[in-house]
Inverse folding.
């Protein structure tokens, strides 16, 4: 299954934007005092990073 170059570019731009969002979420979570909310935010950021990982694999190998 081949993906056209424009779609690959769009997927990679979304991955870059999600990495930025994950970074901001981690910085915000470090400033929080409530442990449960901090854990939830870090978990969501980690799951977004997993999605970014699969997007990068899709762009590289498809």
């Amino acid at each position: 299954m081949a993906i056209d170059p424009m779609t690959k570019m769009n997927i990679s731009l979304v991955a870059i934007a999600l990495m930025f969002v994950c970074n901001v979420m981690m910085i915000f979570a470090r400033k929080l005092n409530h442990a449960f909310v901090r854990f939830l935010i870090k978990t969501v950021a980690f799951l977004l990073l997993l999605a970014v990982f699969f997007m990068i694999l899709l762009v590289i190998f498809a």
